[in-house]
Amino acid sequence: MARPPAPSTAKPSAALLPAARPPARRIDRGMLPTLLGYAMRRAQSAVFADFAATFTQAGEALTPGEFGLLVLVERNTGLSQMALARALGIDRSTLVPILDRLQARGLLVRHRSPTDARTHALGLTADGEAALARFTRLVKAHEKHIASGLSASETRTLIELLEKVHAAARSL
Amino acid sequence: MARPPAPSTAKPSAALLPAARPPARRIDRGMLPTLLGYAMRRAQSAVFADFAATFTQAGEALTPGEFGLLVLVERNTGLSQMALARALGIDRSTLVPILDRLQARGLLVRHRSPTDARTHALGLTADGEAALARFTRLVKAHEKHIASGLSASETRTLIELLEKVHAAARSL
DNA sequence: TATTGTTATACTCTATAACTATA
DNA sequence: TATAGTTATAGAGTATAACAATA
Question: Is residue B36 part of a domain?
Fold first, then answer.
């Protein structure tokens, strides 16, 4: 139906809006904002998105999980896949394609262990070391951004409280 | 190879261990424990596992995301899929199979909207309402557990700080 | 033309079960 | 017999692109 030309009494800005959709109903979230789990999921998802954006903007591609993995391998050279999977809290079969990808990118190698031929001794390549140095700078920038609304002491408090939640959730 | 009977000088408890594996090297996590993002991911993953365990033990099956979705539909009956997807922060195509599953479980229905035949008006069934009441009790028990290491004021502080992180991560 | 819901497709993360080689 | 790594498989979550119905 053709709308008549807006009379001078109409709100000018509203009349110029492109679509004038239904008023975009305000969502009632009920009890959700009182839930710790909900607050964590929301914050986590925004943090994840910012991590990705930080890397993409810099022309790099990495997930938080991959960063954690690279740090663990660098700090624990010669680690086996089992030990790494345990440290990451994932199944050993889950780890395989992740390592495949990082190895295909030339960041990481699987050496044969001389002492136990069943295991692979993991290590970073020279490229992997260099990349991790770049990644670490990006992670620090990202951390600075997500903590930009917090004082240094609030950030420490937040990490402490999260550690307590981690401990409580694992208990029993 | 047969192990000789432990001489009396051996540590008795160690001699009785089933496998006596290599000493399970202590993992060095480097800078990771100083990172907010890392603390959030770890806590989040433990909280997620506890959520699942709470529901499984009670003979129910639900994810945190499904719970949030059901609450939103209950509190905003008649919501469209687009509006729900926006509220959840996911793509509308991602929502389709999730709604399919909840509808197949008889918890939720898609009605045709009388005012705009393109949209579906979402709503809970009577079964869905009853289930959500049960789910809400389980979520409260779960929340109590994951916050069991925190005082009431610490819990409030944690939620506030997470909200600040959420806001900062979304900015720019 | 634009929007809503759907489908087709693809990728990642996750797990379990079974296979292999080694111990 | 038990462990390490791999493969096959399956399910959930995520997205993009294209399509039909409707506005």
Answer: no
Confidence of residue A134 (pLDDT cuts 50, 70, 90): very high
Place of tokens 């069934």: B125
Any domain includes A26: no
- What one-letter code names the amino acid at A13? S
- What is the domain range of residue B146? 50-170
Chain A contact for B79, CB < 8 A? yes
Reported as a pLDDT band with limits 50, 70 and 90, residue B21 is low
Among B26, B41, B124, which would you mutate to test the A interface (most chain A Cβ atoms within 10 Å of its Cβ)? B41
- Contact assessment for residue B149 and residue A127, using Cβ atoms and an 8 Å cutoff: no
For chain A, the domain total comes to 1
Within a domain: residue A107?
yes
Q: Tell me which residues of chain A, numbers 83 to 102, contact chain B at a CB-CB cutoff of 8 Å.
A: 83, 87, 89
Q: Which of A153 and A16 is assigned the larger pLDDT? A: A153
Does residue B21 fall inside a structural domain? no
Average pLDDT over residues B145-172: 96
Q: Which two tokens stand for residue B60?
A: 């129910």
Token pair, residue B42, equals 């770890």
CATH of residue B139? 1.10.10.10
